[in-house]
Amino acid sequence: MALSTPRILCLGSALARRAAPSFLLQQQFRMFSDNAAAEAAKAAPEVVKADPGAKSKIRGVQMLIFGGLGAGFLYGYSLFTSQVPQTGPLVSPAAPAPKTSTPGDYAAVRASISSLLDADYDDGSYGPLLVRLAWHASGTYDKVSCTGGSNGATMRFPPECAWAANRGLAIARDLLEPVKAAHPWISYSDLWTLAGVVAIEDMGGPTVAWRPGRVDYPDGSKIVPDGRLPDATQGAKHLRNIFHRMGFDDRDIVALSGAHTLGRCHPDRSGFSGPWTNAPTTFSNLYFQELVNNKWRPKKWDGPLQYEDAKTGTLMMLPTDLALLSDRTFKKWVSLYAKDEQEFFKDFAVAFGKLMELGVPFPEKPAAAS
Ligand code: HEM
């Protein structure tokens, strides 16, 4: 994260203010001025004795010191309270540089999204949450009725924004609001899907083909019935029902599930808890390696059935994740991706690109969405 000089100064002053409570500062100032008086007295005792104006000279020195310190403090405070352009979040998400871009400048939007990712949030990045937003915005698609999908950005409206499956995603939508404000010409539906793609790339994943063209619906009248997103408590049959409905095959299901190499489960959102890997902000094939290399046992806890690795008990798998091991066809792809990260990246990029385009009436279909 790049920090401008004023930002560093501003932070320095803020830290100093935090680190040194005012009574300590007062104490130091008092000691400093007492010492200054004693030093002056030691250095020129005769002056102190002989010159009745010496006291006022010392007072003058004290005033100078206080004056200097006061001016410094005021300068620091003015920096602290002034509007400094934010280049990225520090503790909470910061607005991206408030520059406007010309319509169609997607590189500028990408840069704004990138600047938001690293933050003091979860494991150090909003990336996984943005990937989940992009996926849940798209994964409502039904290829038979041609309803749902990323077009429309209907998750802005109730009841979709309040579905249990979408708990926590308001954080991601709010995070992207300053990006939308800086580039008002982009639709929410393009922004959310682009954010997922940028996050994957920034976390070390493959380049996903993405193109604009989604339009936002004005209201929630096209929201599909709840229940189209997968239920983590279920098994292979359920996964096939859900993903075949979107137009994906078994290989796609396994590749897409590899996104669980990112992020973690939150008890207050899904009820599940913990990360799938020890590197949840890096896109890799670690999820598949953990799946095949560990023994998984049911976690003993006061929560829904989930699994933990027998060795450390720190990693987790959902019942749907373990279904990829127990189903013979799924397992074939799990084994391949555990061994060959390039193969996983290639398949994931195609499947994720297709997912982002579900339900979007592009004039022509790209190779990825055939
Ligand atoms: C296969 C069926 C799937 C099920 C049952 C499932 C279920 C879940 C659940 C329960 C969580 C935890 C949410 C929370 O507590 O915050 C989660 C997180 C996540 N899912 Fe999935 N998911 C599935 C597929 C996918 C797909 C296809 C993607 C993307 C391609 C994906 C990406 C993510 C990411 C990145 C997170 C982490 C979010 C965070 O750290 O905040 N998932 N998923």
Description:
The protein is mostly helical and 370 residues long. It has 2 domains: 5-81, no CATH class; 93-370, Peroxidase, domain 2 (Orthogonal Bundle). It has 14 helices and 5 strands. Helix 1 crosses helix 4 (54-81) and helix 7 crosses helix 8 (188-202). The chain is globular and about 55 Å long. The structure holds protoporphyrin IX containing FE. Protoporphyrin IX containing FE (HEM) is lined by residues 128-129, 131-132, 135, 168, 230, 232, 239, 256-257, 259-260, 262-266, 269-270, 272, 318, 320, 352.
What would a concise description of this structure say?
The chain is mainly alpha-helical and 370 residues long. It has helices spanning 5-19, 22-43, 45-50, 54-81, 106-117, 127-138, 169-182, 188-202, 236-246, 250-257, 286-293, 319-326, 328-339, 341-356; strands at residues 264-265, 274-275, 296-298, 307-309, 316-317.
Blueprint (SSEs and pairs):
Blueprint lengths: L4 H15 L2 H22 L1 H6 L3 H28 L24 H12 L9 H12 L30 H14 L5 H15 L33 H11 L3 H8 L6 E2 L8 E2 L10 H8 L2 E3 L8 E3 L6 E2 L1 H8 L1 H12 L1 H16 L14
Antiparallel strand pairs: 1-2, 3-4, 4-5
The structure holds protoporphyrin IX containing FE (HEM).
CATH class of the largest domain: Mainly Alpha
Helix percentage range: 40-55%
Q: Assign an overall shape.
A: globular
What is the CATH topology descriptor of the largest domain?
Peroxidase, domain 2
Question: Which CATH-level-2 architecture of the largest domain?
Answer: Orthogonal Bundle
Give me the CATH superfamily of the largest domain: Peroxidase, domain 2
Outline the biggest β-sheet: 3 strands, antiparallel
Strand fraction: under 5%
What molecules are bound to this protein?
Answer: protoporphyrin IX containing FE
Q: Round the Cα radius of gyration to an integer and report it.
A: 29 Å
Secondary structural class: mainly alpha
Distance between the termini: 39 Å
**SSE sequence, one letter per element:** HHHHHHHHHHEEHEEEHHH
For the residues shown, what is the average pLDDT?
81
Strand arrangement in the largest pleated sheet: 3-4-5
Low-confidence stretches: 1-58, 67-92
The tally of beta strands, per DSSP, is 5
Counting structural domains, the number is 2
Alpha plus pi helix count: 14
